[in-house]
Automatic annotation (TrEMBL):
<dbReference type="InterPro" id="IPR046373">
    <property type="entry name" value="Acyl-CoA_Oxase/DH_mid-dom_sf"/>
</dbReference>
<feature type="binding site">
    <location>
        <position position="151"/>
    </location>
    <ligand>
        <name>FAD</name>
    </ligand>
</feature>
<dbReference type="GO" id="GO:0071949">
    <property type="term" value="F:FAD binding"/>
</dbReference>
<dbReference type="GO" id="GO:0005777">
    <property type="term" value="C:peroxisome"/>
</dbReference>
<dbReference type="InterPro" id="IPR037069">
    <property type="entry name" value="AcylCoA_DH/ox_N_sf"/>
</dbReference>
<feature type="binding site">
    <location>
        <position position="190"/>
    </location>
    <ligand>
        <name>FAD</name>
    </ligand>
</feature>
<feature type="domain" description="Acyl-CoA oxidase C-terminal">
    <location>
        <begin position="477"/>
        <end position="662"/>
    </location>
</feature>
<keyword id="KW-0274">FAD</keyword>
<dbReference type="InterPro" id="IPR029320">
    <property type="entry name" value="Acyl-CoA_ox_N"/>
</dbReference>
<keyword id="KW-0443">Lipid metabolism</keyword>
<dbReference type="GO" id="GO:0055088">
    <property type="term" value="P:lipid homeostasis"/>
</dbReference>
<dbReference type="InterPro" id="IPR036250">
    <property type="entry name" value="AcylCo_DH-like_C"/>
</dbReference>
<protein>
    <recommendedName>
        <fullName>Acyl-coenzyme A oxidase</fullName>
    </recommendedName>
</protein>
<dbReference type="InterPro" id="IPR002655">
    <property type="entry name" value="Acyl-CoA_oxidase_C"/>
</dbReference>
<dbReference type="Pfam" id="PF01756">
    <property type="entry name" value="ACOX"/>
</dbReference>
<comment type="pathway">
    <text>Lipid metabolism; peroxisomal fatty acid beta-oxidation.</text>
</comment>
<dbReference type="GO" id="GO:0003997">
    <property type="term" value="F:acyl-CoA oxidase activity"/>
</dbReference>
Length: 665
């Protein structure tokens, strides 16, 4: 392990004895190889040993403005540290932007995140070679700091409804940016409130009197020296949020603000000097930055879930409560089957989500390379899968984080447990980058189209032709995956049947679509779950795993896919063939038995499994999850930091309480 303290809680010590698998092998697997693990550890030592990057007081005790300033101080210091990083600049940046190392230093949202996660990718994906030459070096060198300004007060989801206009003026060869109403104000962009001086702004492009739809524009917002907003720019911060409070989300309005023609990002579509509009090969190419972020969000959510699971698992092995055997010592709460039922599925999910996210990342890179060469064939599959996995990982992730919090009882509710921050981060991902319901409906659109037209990309091939495979109960992993596949196909067919029923009643297609939404969303979710379980099962077939690691990963895989099946059992009732064959009851009995057996088999390995995530205490940032298990002392030390404990009697006693006590009301 990275850190060994002199104290080690005896229960945790016992949990760590006789580990049947090599923890380092799993660490290497998650890092992407032995060398990558070594690089990561070196980088962690480099960053986490810097005293200036540590918080003087917990962030929760700072004001809104001080939180931002403190986070910005550390973010800027981190950027300076990039120069001398032992791992090299780009890997360090990646590690910092990911939720692991970065969040050990930057606790509640990074004021420079949008610059790297959206602004630079938007320049790369939407700018011409000349535009990239002009802006990218400046952006990499942090001479300019940007954000991605798309969402408005009135519209976030419906991009065609955005109101900000960019009207081309051929006389001056400029675009005039305008916010025609209050609801046209940009609202939400991260880092916009106080940090960024540039933005990629999405606006409705007007030229020759015609609206050509939303397009990306490179816009300077603040003076590069004074940081004052430029004339015609109305800008500010939107205030405290459920989480991510050190990221200065902002608002932005334009009052006839002029930019040169060449600040329309023109990789996919152009406006010529005379105002002639040149169309893109696909109108959705201007949405590409969102696709990139949906892909990385899956990784981010998984990293956060690993933290929550580690904290809850270690704590559950330290915590002793109640009575299991009458008269015996109070057991570790982890020994209750009910607690295992809470924690082992999210533990398994960290592996399932990571493997699916890796798969998506590979698809993204291949599709993106092809798009650069003008080949858009993979775009629909990439859009469908990135929507599906972003929605699934963030929604299941947020639920699992909340279960982890609950599994820590009262102490899980403390801010210092780090659950509120982790939850704030993960649940935000349910909304940003496409609200999940909206993304499920995008996925459903792709599924319905594939099933009807019998053509589609790799992730939806199972919808083409007749399904094959056993129709009876089959307890092998393959058998269970087949059940998922039949459910997914069945739910798409049910949704299509609903659409057709409405059609026969004379409903217009858009009404029929709205009236089938419940079925469509179920179909999309079943599709996403199928993809995740297939990725998990298939990745165990390949790879150079030792027998003990393969065994424990197979147990986790089986547990996870049975867990989901039982959780989502209601969906089987939608698929008629299961009811007819009375499969549902049989499935239930067999699976529940197996599930319970797996809980017992994985329980003794839980601490060793979370240890193999190799998350340092600074990254977990929680007295409940620390490696040494010294939970109670650490909770006490955290309480000592409260400003209310800095004097025995607080001044408010004299101001308010004493007069009340003396008032004889
Ligand atoms: C050295 C540099 C290193 C960089 C290092 C970076 C490394 C990073 C590593 C780790 C980082 C981890 C850290 C991550 C943490 C993240 C930090 C927090 C950041 C927070 C960011 C949040 C930002 C935002 O929220 S930005 C705003 C996002 N907004 C949205 O997502 C809006 C959602 N709405 C839409 O997308 C659309 O409006 C719509 C899709 C819902 C509907 O659009 P539409 O009406 O135009 O389309 P239709 O429904 O009519 O469909 C038509 C047709 O188009 C297809 N389609 C739709 N979208 C797409 C697409 N995107 N791509 C391809 N095709 C698309 C659709 O399928 C239809 O096809 P048909 O064939 O059926 O016609
Ligand atoms: C933490 C955070 C950071 C963000 N950062 C950025 C940023 O950097 N840049 C940026 O531009 N934006 C950013 N956003 C904005 C974000 O992308 C939007 O909030 C998000 O896309 C949802 O859009 P909305 O707010 O308009 O929700 P709405 O669309 O108004 O959603 C409200 C409800 O309506 C439902 N709904 C809407 N349309 C449909 C439909 N067609 N069918 C069925 N139901 C529907 C939704 O499911 C939801 O339940 C951020 C948001 C958050 C929370």
């Amino acid at each position: 392990m990275s850190q060994k303290e002199t104290y080690e809680n005896p229960d945790l010590k016992k949990e760590r004895q006789n580990c049947p698998f090599n923890k380092e092998e799993i660490t290497n697997l998650l890092d992407g190889g032995k060398e990558k693990t070594a690089e990561r550890k070196q980088l962690e030592n480099y960053i986490l040993s810097d005293e200036q990057l540590k918080d003087a007081v917990p962030m929760e005790y700072l004001s809104h403005a001080d939180k931002y300033a403190e986070e910005l101080r550390k973010a800027c210091l981190l950027m300076h540290k990039l120069e001398n990083s032992p791992a090299g600049q780009v890997p360090t940046l990646r590690a910092l932007m990911g939720a692991g190392l970065g969040s050990a230093v930057l606790k509640e949202g990074n004021p420079l995140a949008l610059h790297y996660v959206m602004f630079i990718p938007a320049l790369m994906g939407q700018g011409t070679i000349d535009q990239q030459a002009k802006w990218l070096a400046k952006a990499y060198n942090l001479n300019i700091i940007g954000t991605y300004a798309q969402t408005e007060l009135g519209h976030g989801t419906f991009l065609r409804g955005l109101e900000t206009t960019a009207t081309y003026d051929p006389n001056t060869q400029e675009f005039v940016l305008e916010s025609p109403s209050l609801t046209a104000y940009k609202w939400w962009p991260g880092s916009l409130g106080k940090t960024a001086n540039y933005a990629v702004v999405m606006a409705q492009l007007y030229t020759k009197g015609k609206c050509e739809g939303t397009h990306p524009f490179m816009v300077q917002l603040r003076d590069e020296e004074t940081h004052e907003p430029l004339p015609g720019i109305v800008i500010g911060e939107i205030g405290p949020k459920l989480g991510m409070n050190t990221n200065d989300n902002g608002y932005l309005g334009f009052e006839k603000f002029r930019i040169p023609r060449d600040q329309l990002l023109m990789k996919h579509s152009q406006v010529l000097e005379d105002g002639t509009y040149v169309k893109p090969t696909n109108s959705k190419l201007s949405y590409a930055t969102m696709v990139f972020v949906r892909v990385v969000v899956c990784q981010d959510v998984t990293t956060n879930l690993r933290k929550a699971v580690t904290i809850a698992t270690r704590y559950s092995c330290v915590r002793r409560q109640s009575e299991l055997k009458p008269g015996d010592r109070e057991p570790q709460v982890m020994d209750y089957q009910a607690q295992q039922n809470k924690l082992l599925p999210p533990l398994a999910a960290t592996f399932a989500f990571q493997l699916a996210s890796d798969h998506l990342w590979n698809l993204y890179n291949t599709a993106n390379n092809n798009i650069e060469q003008g080949d858009l064939e993979l775009l629909p599959d990439l859009h469908g899968l990135s929507c599906a996995l972003k929605a699934l990982c963030s929604s299941e992730g947020a639920n699992f984080v909340e279960v982890c919090r609950q599994s820590c009882g009262g102490h899980g509710y403390m801010a210092c447990s780090n659950f509120p921050r982790i939850y704030g981060q993960v649940t935000a991902a349910e909304t940003y980058e496409g609200e999940n319901t909206v993304l499920w409906l995008q996925v459903a659109r792709y599924l319905v189209k594939t099933r009807k037209e019998q053509t589609g990309g790799l992730s939806v091939k199972y919808l083409i032709g007749e399904e094959k495979g056993p129709k009876t109960v089959d307890t092998t992993l393959e058998g269970i995956v087949h059940l998922y596949r039949r459910t997914a196909v069945g739910l798409v067919d049910v949704a299509i049947a609903e659409l057709e029923k409405s059609g026969r009643k004379g409903e217009a297609p858009h009404d029929a679509w709205n009236h089938a939404a419940v079925y469509l969303i179920k179909a999309a979710q079943a599709h996403a779950r199928l993809f995740v379980v297939e990725s998990f099962v298939n990745s165990l077939k390949v790879g150079n795993l030792s027998a003990p690691v393969r065994t424990v990963l197979s147990q986790l895989c089986e547990l996870f896919i049975i867990y989901w099946l039982l959780e989502r059992s209601g969906e089987l009732f939608f698929v008629r063939q299961f009811i007819k064959k009375r499969l549902v009851t049989v499935e239930f009995q067999v699976r529940t038995l197996l599930y319970v057996k797996l809980l017992a088999a994985i329980r003794p390995q839980a601490v060793n499994l979370v240890d193999s995530f190799d998350l340092r205490d600074e990254i977990l940032a929680s007295p409940l999850g620390c490696w040494d298990g010294n939970v109670y002392q650490r909770l006490f030390d955290e309480a000592a930091k409260s400003p209310l404990n800095q004097s025995s009697v607080h001044e408010s006693f004299h101001k308010y309480l004493k007069p009340l006590l003396k008032s004889n009301l």
